[in-house]
Design goal:
Shape: globular
Number of helices: 15
Distance between the termini: 32 Å
Radius of gyration: 20 Å
Helix content: 55-70%
Strand content: 5-15%
Length: 354
């Protein structure tokens, strides 16, 4: 067990490369005077590092200056925040691993098999949203309870983690404020209706970290380590979305999916098209990009399924929405081998490949 836990710690360590990857979608174009004002505000925010009150004042100046300034500042906050989140996730996972050994002694293998069976059975038929909620949600909640150390218990064991969390919350609140001030896309089917909060996002980080302390077979460990090496070539949230997907599959005893950078590029291109052309659909109006198969072929690969989401910058939220959407649910838990996630703003595309 100790060897297994240490292997997972090593896997997580490779994910720290996420912080050096792609950044958020480009902010709206601005005239030269607007660009200068945005640059001044970004510089002022950086000078106020460590002073949450002053940084909050800069954020409000950006809000008053308009969307261009807010988007530039939000991009800067994103750059500062994600490396800190990566380090926090590593420390949190190490603390969770220390509690996992005693937690997992209580696991009942026969109960685990019984819980997985109805969820996996849904993937073989044509489930409804109501069936997924009625059968899938309670089973996933119980599997999580069995396998995953409660994040509150992890925090309670470490005053250092609690202090790190408070620092993250200060910067995360500024990110949350910027996102709330940016123009919002109109509601669409499949969109998250819940407002984004950094507290929810941070809780999701802690759940992912605790999920990495769950037992994994050697093949899953190998795939996650490989994905960790590729993560630096992705937007941090794209990599985080893939990780959330694979941890869900692991709870269900399914193999992890390998990141395909070409599928990720095709997915990112579709997300960008949806954002820029104001549509939300698997069928694209852009010539040569009509279907997922067309889009994958343009980037030199092949696809076996596609999920799309709009409404939050949080990939963990996207995964939860897909889990409750019948077609997307079947893709998430389907017989695929490769995956690529592409994000543009609050638009996510997830491409699968055999």
């Amino acid at each position: 067990m100790r060897r297994l836990i240490m292997a997972v710690v090593m896997v997580l360590g490779s994910w720290i490369a996420i912080g050096g990857g792609r950044t958020e979608a480009k902010p709206p174009a601005a005239d030269s005077s607007g660009s200068r004002e945005a640059a001044k505000l970004v510089a002022e925010f950086r000078r106020a590092k460590g002073d949450a009150e002053k940084q909050g004042q800069v954020v409000e100046k950006a809000v008053a200056a308009g969307p261009g300034a807010v988007a530039s500042l939000q991009k800067q906050i994103f750059r500062e925040l994600h490396p800190q989140l990566d380090r926090y996730r590593v420390r949190f996972q190490q603390q969770a691993a220390g509690l996992a050994k005693s937690h997992l002694r209580k696991a009942d293998l026969s109960e685990i098999a019984r819980l997985r069976l109805p969820i996996l059975a849904l993937t073989k038929g044509e489930p409804t949203h109501e069936e997924i909620v009625a059968k899938g949600d309670p089973a996933m909640a119980r599997l999580t309870e069995i396998f995953v150390v409660n994040r509150a218990d992890v925090l309670a064991q470490s005053e250092d983690l609690q202090a790190d969390r408070r620092k993250l919350q200060a910067l995360g609140k500024h990110w949350e404020r910027c996102l709330a001030a940016l123009p919002q896309s109109p509601p669409a089917e499949g969109e998250s209706k819940k407002p984004f909060t950094f507290e929810d996002y941070l809780s999701g980080e802690e759940e992912l970290a605790a999920g990495l302390a769950v037992p994994m077979d050697p093949k899953t460990q190998q795939v996650l380590a490989m994905n960790g090496r590729l993560a630096g070539q992705l937007d941090p949230e794209e990599a985080r979305t893939v990780l959330a997907l694979n941890l869900t599959r692991n709870l269900l005893g399914l193999p992890a999916l390998v990141i395909d950078l070409k599928l990720a590029a095709a997915a990112r291109d579709h997300s960008k098209d949806m954002e820029e052309n104001k549509f939300f659909a698997h069928e694209s109006p852009i010539p040569g990009k009509k279907t997922p198969w067309d889009r994958a072929a343009r980037f030199g690969t092949s696809a076996s399924g596609e999920n799309i989401f709009m409404g939050s910058p949080d990939g963990k939220v996207a995964n939860l929405a897909w889990f409750h959407s019948p077609g997307h649910f079947k893709n998430m838990l389907g017989d695929h081998q490769r995956v690529g996630v592409g994000r543009s703003g609050v638009y996510f595309t997830e491409e699968f490949g055999k």
